[in-house]
Amino acid sequence: MTNVAGAPGAQSAAEPAAPRKGSETLHYARRNPKLLIGLGIVLVFLLLGLIGPLFVDHGPNEYVGPQSQPPNGEFWLGTTSFGQDIWAQFVFGVRTTFLIGVFGGGIAFVIGTTVGFIAGYKGGIVDEILNMLTNVVLVLPAMVVLIVAIAYLDARGVFVQGLFIGLTSWPWAARAVRSQALSLATRDYVDLARLSGRRTGKIITTEIAPNMSSYLVMSFILLFGGAILIAAGLDFIGLGPSDGVSLGLMLESAVAWSALQFGMWWWFVPPGLGITVIVSSLYILNVGLDEVFNPKLREL
C-alpha cells in the first residue's frame, strides 16, 4: 500500500518522458542531412504530382504540338514523335507513381504487419500456420505471378495493379514484424496487459505496435519504394494501366518508338530519372530515419 501513495509522484515524474523522447528525436531529425535531403526530394515530387496537373490544360496523351520537338519555351520537356506533351505526361506520371506506391505499398504493409503481429504474439500453432503461409508466398516468383495475372485482365487500372503488387509484396514485412513481435510479446507490460483480460487486438495496438512505431514507418517506406519499382517494371513490358499514363509507360513508349535511336533523349530521360530519383530519395530517407531512431547510429 505504501507504493500506492507514491504512485502519483512516480507518474508525474514519468509523464515528461514521452515528450522528452519526442523532442530528442526531432532534434536529431533536424540535424540529419540524409533525412532532410531524402524527405525534401520526395516532397518536391509529391507536390509536382499533386499540383502539376492542375496547370496543364490538356490531357497527357493528346496531340497538341509539332512532332519530335526538343524542350523549348512552349513545351518544357519537348514532344513525342506523335506531338504529345512530355511535360504533361511526366506530371501525370509522377502522380500515378505515388498512387501505386501508396496503394500497393499500403496493402502489403497492412497484410504484412497483421500477419507478423498475430504470428509473433500468438506463437504456437498459429505462428506455425502463418509462418508457413508467409514462406509459401515468399518463394513464389512474384514478378512471374504478376505478369501472368495482369496479362489476362482486359482493363488494367492503377488500383488493380497496386492490388496485385500488394498481395505479392507482404511476406518479408511479415517476417520482420514477426521477429520483433516475438521479442516484445514476452515483456512484463505485455504479460500484465494479458493478465488484465485485454483482447489480443487491443494488446497489439496499444502495447506492442507503439514500441515498434519507428520500425513500422521505415518498413512502409521500403514497401512504398518497392511497389514503385515493381510497377515500373510491369509498365515497361507493357502491362501498366491501360487507361492512363505512368513513368514506366513513358519509358515503354519511348523504347517502342525508337526514341533512343532517333536521339530523342527528352522522351526517355525524364521518366527514367524521375523513377531513379524518387526511389533513391526514399532509400536515403529510410537510412536517415534509421540513424535518427537508432541511438547507436546517431551523429552528435
TrEMBL record:
Domain of life of the native organism: Bacteria
Location in the cell: Cell membrane
Comp. bias regions, Low complexity: 1-19
Cross-referenced PROSITE patterns: ABC_TM1 (PS50928)
Keyword line: Cell membrane, Membrane, Transmembrane, Transmembrane helix, Transport
Spans annotated as Disordered: 1-22
Domain ABC transmembrane type-1: 94-286
TM region positions: 35-56, 98-121, 133-153, 215-237, 274-293
Main location: membrane
A Pfam family this chain is assigned to: BPD_transp_1
Signal peptide range in chain numbering: none
Keyword Metal-binding assigned: no
InterPro entries: BP-dependent_transpt_permease, MetI-like, MetI-like_sf
Membrane-protein topology: Multi-pass membrane protein
Family indicated by similarity: Belongs to the binding-protein-dependent transport system permease family.
Protein's recorded name: ABC transporter permease
Species this protein is from: Nocardiopsis tropica
